[in-house]
Amino acid sequence: MAKATQYTQNGAHIALYPMPSVESVAVNITVRAGSWYEAGVHWGAFHFMEHMSFDGSARFKNPISYNFFRERHGIYANVYTDVDSMGYSLTFPRTKLSEGFTFARELVFGPTFPDRQLQREAEVVSQEYTGMYSNPHQRFARNIRERLFGQKLYETQGFDGLRLSAWGGWRHDERLVLLRESLLP
Predict the structure, then answer these.
(1) What is the pTM of this model?
(2) Are 42 and 36 a contacting pair, CB within 8 Å?
(3) pLDDT per residue over 75-90, tens digit each?
(4) CB–CB of 179/6 below 8 Å?
(5) Can you tell me whether residue 63 is helix, strand or coil?
(6) Is the separation of the CB atoms in 103 and 73 below 8 Å?
(7) How many CB atoms are closer than 10 A to CB 66?
(8) Closest CA to 58 of 19, 110, 121, 9
(9) In what helix (H) or strand (E) does residue 108 lie, and over which residues does it extend?
(10) Does residue 64 register a pLDDT over 50?
(11) Beta strand pairing status for 4-7 and 86-93?
(12) Distance of CA 163 to CAs 27, 42, 73, 167, 171, Å?
């Protein structure tokens, strides 16, 4: 059970679980965003954002500066997506609270989604999707899903590099607005 639970001004739920014997801090931020909530030109946007999360922020201009800061302060960070959520998972030493939360703030609220990375990340995500069904277990799971629910977004909308033309056509500020709106509870 959480020792302290509170809500921020925007309604975000924060639960603290202090464990005095543990020398590290774990932070998990989960956002209700994923393919279940995406439609039209936004389809695939959060998976794409996941891949671009470490490509730059206001403070960290490129992946190298992100990685240098992480290694220097012992920060582990991962971004993941699922059908119903996008998450940020971080751990860092208890002695590096300021650095860990600075990194979390940049990762979650400060990504720049640089245009120079769009094509590369679209190719990575496209390869990830097409490679997913090379595993026999995944092919079986897809077959079951199709029989139960019919063809869904991946099959009916196609997978043309996550509709890169639509994503790349968004202005930079529009990409950030989509992320910001999704971070509200």
Answers:
(1) 0.71
(2) no
(3) 999 999 888 888 999 9
(4) no
(5) helix
(6) yes
(7) 22
(8) 110
(9) helix 97-109
(10) yes
(11) unpaired
(12) 32, 9, 37, 6, 15
